[in-house]
């Protein structure tokens, strides 16, 4: 049964989006959670996408049960193809199909920033988490992105992305809000932290710069920006060129700050 919620995933599932998701691992995206994982825990991964983090989490909690869910079927075939015995399914974070107190760990990476009601999602994640279990969430904070060299085309990219996301009733600056959202959702035992992705080596610049040079032209972000009159094709081409220039600069450096927290159910 498809999810009932009508939230719009700002990025969509074009390959330019999924190829960045494929590079996510427990080490680079869930290190704050890793020390709490142990064999035998049951874990739900919300918004699992192609499953790269999910499979890494599963290896750490085996033989515990692991289930990865996403709001659409599109990325799940790739997640299933990796094997490892993880269950993958379509589900709705606002109305999860699990009974109360099903999971020891409920994890969501880069999910809350795309939701119109992140507090309701956190309440639902808490519902399916066993007493004493942990809800673990990590989200980027777009307004805090920092890069060098300065380029007005990248300034335009950031402003445009935030406009598109806000048009979807989503909050791209979610990282700084996680603690407030968790408290509003009723959590009282919360450990908030932060970490960054740093793209500064030639290899990292190539991956990030190529990804955004493509994504701003081909993904759902481009479609939404054009349909809403927020940008023209020429604007998007300029932004894409800005990402290519950043990629090619030997001085290119960029960080993506993330808020993260562990909240006890």
Describe the overall structure.
The chain has 265 residues and is α/β, with parallel strands linked by helices. It is built from ten helices and eight strands. Strands 1, 2, 3, 4, 5, 6, 7 and 8 form an eight-stranded mixed beta sheet that branches. Helix 1 runs antiparallel to helix 8, helix 6 crosses helix 10 and helix 8 runs antiparallel to helix 10. The longest helix has 17 residues.
End-to-end separation? 28 Å
The percentage helix is 25-40%
Q: Would you identify the regions where 5 or more consecutive residues have pLDDT less than 50?
A: none
Mean pLDDT value: 95
Q: Helical stretch count?
A: 10
Indicate the structural class.
Answer: alpha/beta
The coarse overall form would be globular
Rg for CA atoms:
18 Å
Q: List the helices and strands in order.
A: HHEHEHEEHEEHHEHHHE
Number of strands: 8
| β-sheet strand percentage | 15-25%
What characterizes the major β-sheet? 8 strands, mixed
From the structure provided, what is the oligomeric state, counting identical versus distinct chains? single chain
Layout of strands and helices, then pairs:
Blueprint: H1 15-21, H2 26-29, E1 43-46, H3 52-61, E2 66-70, H4 76-81, E3 87-90, E4 103-109, H5 118-127, E5 129-140, E6 146-148, H6 152-167, H7 178-184, E7 190-199, H8 202-218, H9 220-227, H10 233-248, E8 253-264
Parallel strand pairs: 1-2, 1-4, 2-3, 4-5
Antiparallel strand pairs: 5-8, 6-8, 7-8
Helix pairs in contact: 1-8, 6-10, 8-9, 8-10
